[in-house]
Specification:
Shape: globular
Helix content: 55-70%
Mean pLDDT: 85
Radius of gyration: 22 Å
Number of helices: 14
Low-confidence stretches: none
Largest sheet: 3 strands, antiparallel
Structural class: mainly alpha
Distance between the termini: 56 Å
Number of strands: 3
Length: 372
């Protein structure tokens, strides 16, 4: 789908060959696949080392801060480092960093999970600070995803409702402080910029602003509607011919709907849904709290991004710029997802290995002797 959805954009907008984005994504896939193999092999419990966690979180914050000095601006957001012809988006990796950090904190401190100073304030500080750094790029979509992932993990951690209420209150205080910081530093204009406001006005009345703020959403809906049940045929989308902006990223699901129909969209959603559901089911069976929370975090990351992307493309929520996991074009996103799936599979493999060992140990000695 990358080739089909991006070929017109590559030629018309970037003056490149039709397979330009496809070739770049192919290279990103090879690198991402190798990274997944590495994270499948490395024992996942190494990630909860205290020194590793502190280095990871401070390093992530430092990298996000460096964006404001060395970052590349595109689409009114300073979210990328440009290295030659390649670009990397650090905010993507903040998702996994926060998942690992929260899983380690709440996985190691089950006996102190309701402690304000041990299990509430430190994670909330990092969460709000990371979301703040991403939000002022500005990239509110990614900040919202990280916040929702973290909320899902905290609710699933076993924390009492009383502590969750306290946590929500403390979070509100931190958010208020950082919001005040945005106002005092003069970044308020980025929050209410014309581009940001247009997303909401276009969402509220897309067909009333078909030639303006509602242009993207209207053409997305046209693409989805024209596909019917079986689609117009692979490669035969009309909307990708300049009518649907970002057809290979934010709106790739619209191109899938147009070319492959509802059946094609259903297949994509069922596949992604299977991964998410499998993660949540296995997290309930996992006896290691750290591993269980990793599965919950990674599954919720995929599920939340799917929901936000589909919601934006169909007009259920405002357009956020969140891409469709594994399907949309984007090297940073694909690398993050493949590394995450490596950790995901690592937890499952070690969980299955532990179950097999327990079965062997539980077999009575007389049964073992009778088999000889």
């Amino acid at each position: 789908m990358i080739y089909s959805s991006s070929m017109i954009t590559a030629v018309a907008r970037y003056k490149e060959p039709m397979d330009f984005f496809f070739e770049k994504q192919k290279m990103a896939f090879i690198i991402s696949f190798l990274a997944m193999i590495v994270t499948m092999i490395l024992p996942y419990k190494m990630y909860k080392n205290k020194n590793f966690l502190m280095l990871m979180m401070l390093g992530m914050a430092g990298i996000l801060l460096l964006l404001f000095i060395f970052g590349h601006t595109a689409g009114n957001a300073t979210s990328w480092f440009k290295i030659g012809t390649k670009s990397i988006q650090p905010a993507e990796f903040s998702k996994l960093a926060m998942i690992i950090y929260l899983a380690a904190i709440y996985g190691k401190r089950q006996d102190r999970i309701n402690s304000i100073d041990k299990a509430v304030i430190p994670p909330i500080f990092f969460l709000v600070f990371i979301c703040f750094l991403i939000g002022i790029q500005p990239d509110y979509g990614t900040a919202a995803v990280i916040f929702l992932i973290s909320s899902t993990m905290i609710i699933s951690s076993g924390m009492s409702f009383k502590s969750i209420f306290k946590l929500s209150l403390i979070t509100s205080i931190f958010v208020a402080i950082f919001a005040l910081g945005i106002i005092l530093t003069g970044n308020l204009s980025s929050v209410f910029s014309e581009n940001k406001v247009s997303r909401f006005t276009g969402f509220a009345d897309p067909f009333g602003q078909e030639g303006g703020n509602g242009y993207q959403l209207v053409n997305s809906l046209y693409a989805i509607g024209s596909g019917g049940l079986t689609g117009v045929g692979l490669g035969d989308s009309v909307q990708k011919y300049g009518y649907l902006p970002e057809s290979h990223t934010d709106f790739i699901i619209s191109v899938i709907a147009e070319e492959l129909g509802i059946f094609g969209v259903g297949f994509v959603l069922l596949t992604l849904g299977f991964i998410v559901l499998r993660g949540f089911i296995l997290s309930a069976k996992c006896k290691d709290p750290f591993g269980s929370l990793l599965l919950i975090g990674i599954s919720s990351m995929i599920g939340i991004q799917v929901g936000i992307n589909i919601g934006g493309a169909t007009g259920l929520i405002p357009i956020t710029g969140i891409t469709l996991p594994f399907i949309s074009y984007g090297g940073s996103s694909l690398l993050l997802l493949m590394i995450s799936m490596g950790i995901f599979q690592n937890v499952i493999m070690r969980m299955n290995l532990l179950e097999q060992k327990e079965k062997v140990i539980s077999i009575p000695k007389d049964e073992i002797a009778s088999t000889k």
